[in-house]
Amino acid sequence: MAARYQISGSSSAAISACVETGIRAGDLAPGDALPAVRALAAELGVSPATVAKAYQELRQRGLVATAGRHGTRVRPRPPVATRRSALMPRPLPGTRNLSAGEPDGRLLPPLGPHLAELAAQLGVPGGYAAAAVLPELAAAARDRLAADGVPADEITVTGGALDGIERLLAAHLRPGDAVAVEDPGWANLLDLLAALGLRAIGVPVDDEGPTAPGVRAALAAGARALIVTSRAQNPTGAAVSADRAAELRTLLAGRSDLLLIEDDHAAELARVPLHPLAGATPAWAFVRSVSKPYGPDLRLAVLAGDEATVARVAGRARVGAGWVSTVLQRLVLALWRDPATADLVRGAAESYERRRDGLVDALAARGLAAHGRTGINVWVPVPDETVAVTALRDAGWSVAPGALNRIAAAPGVRITVSSLDEADLGPLADAAARAVRPAPAGFTT
C-alpha cells in the first residue's frame, strides 16, 4: 500500500468509503496491498469484525480482491473512475506496445464515406417512439448468424459484447452466484464478474476451447452460468473445435439451471469455422460484436438467444439506456452491405493470421511453446511473469502480464500482434527466448 495514504474510519461504511476515496484519487493504485485486518483494527481502535466487514463490502463491489496469504489488494481494474490509473506497466518511451489487445488501426475499414452517405440519407431525427432494433439490421444479422449455424429467431442489439454479457448475467443471476469462465480468460470479463458480485470458477482452456473435464467440474461446483469464447479466445487464441463442441453439447444437454453464453467477438477475423453451442441449454445467448473487424468505437453487438433470455435483455435495456442508437445501427448495416469493406476485413484476417502464425513458429524455432490458433493475441507460458515482462520491456517490447487474465492457470504473457510487421517477428522471438531463459547471473571470464 502507498505509504502516503492513511485509512481512517470508525465504522465499516466509513472505512470502505475511505479506501474507495483512495482508489478514486489514485493514492491506492491497482495491486496495492491493504493492511491486514487485525493490524488495521488495532490502528483505528475498532474491532477486527468491523474491518473485516469493510473489506467484505469492498470485495462485493469489486474494488479489492483477497488471495489467501497474499492478503487483500486493490483489483487491477476496480469499477470506479479514477484520476490516475495503472492497469498494467506503462510502455516505456521507445518501446513497442504489444499489450493493448486492440486491432490494427491500419487495417480497419474507413468510416468516413459511409458516415457521409448516411448523413445524406437521414431525414427528420428519430424519437423515442421509433427507437428499436432496425428490422433491416435484424434481418441482416439473422442471415449472417444462420450462415454460421446459429439459430437467430430472437435477436436484439447491445452496446458491445461486454454490455450484452453484463445484461445477460444481471437478468439471470444474483450476487454470490458462480460463473464458469475460461482460465486464462478475458481480463475485462473477470473484472465485470467482480463488479457484479459474482464468483468466478476457472475452466482450463486448450487450443480447442474450454476442456470438458473443466466444465464438468465447474458445473459440479455450482456454476449458474458458463461463458465460452467461440473463436479468437483472449488471451490464448483458442477456438472451439467440432469435436469439442459435440463433447460440450452432450455435457450441457438438458441443464435447465444453467445460462450458456457464447462470445464470438472476432467474427469474420477468426478464419476458422464456427462450431456453436447455441441451443445446448434451454437458456442460452450468442453474442457477436462488430468491434474487432470494423472498429472498437462501433459499440454494437448482435445478441441472439432463446425467447425468454432475449426478452429479458431487451426489456432491461428498455427501462435503462433504452436502445442502441439507430444511427449506429445504420452505419453497421452499411458496412455489412459494402463489398469493399468485406474485402478489407478478409485482408485484415489474413494479415493477422500471417503475423500470429509467424510469431508462434518463430517462438517454436527457439524452443518456446506458444498458443495463438486464431485472433490477434499470442499466449506464451513463462516461469515468472515479472521477469519475462521486465526483460522484454528492457529489450524494447511491452507485453501484458498474464496475471490480469488468470484465476488458477499457470503464468504467461500475452503478446498482441496487431502492431507487428513481419520483419519484427524474428527480433521479438529472440527477445522472448532471452526473457524466458535469461542468462545465468554471475561474473564472466
Explain what this protein looks like in three dimensions.
The protein is an alpha/beta fold and 445 residues long. It has helices spanning 12-25, 37-44, 48-60, 112-121, 135-146, 161-172, 187-195, 212-220, 242-252, 291-294, 307-318, 326-337, 339-365, 385-394, 425-436, and strands at residues 64-66, 72-74, 96-97, 155-158, 178-183, 199-206, 209-210, 223-229, 259-263, 283-289, 301-305, 377-381, 397-398, 400-401, 412-416. Helix 1 (12-25) packs across helix 3 (48-60), helix 13 (339-365) crosses helix 15 and helix 14 packs across helix 15. The relative contact order is 0.13.
Q: Largest beta sheet: what is the strand line-up? A: 4-11-10-9-8-5-6-7
Whole-angstrom Rg = 23 Å
Q: Helical content, roughly?
A: 25-40%
Largest sheet: 8 strands, mixed
The low-confidence runs, each spanning 5 or more residues with pLDDT under 50, are 84-88
Whole-number average pLDDT?
A: 90
Provide keyphrases for this structure.
445 residues, alpha/beta, eight-stranded mixed sheet, three-stranded antiparallel sheet, 15% strand
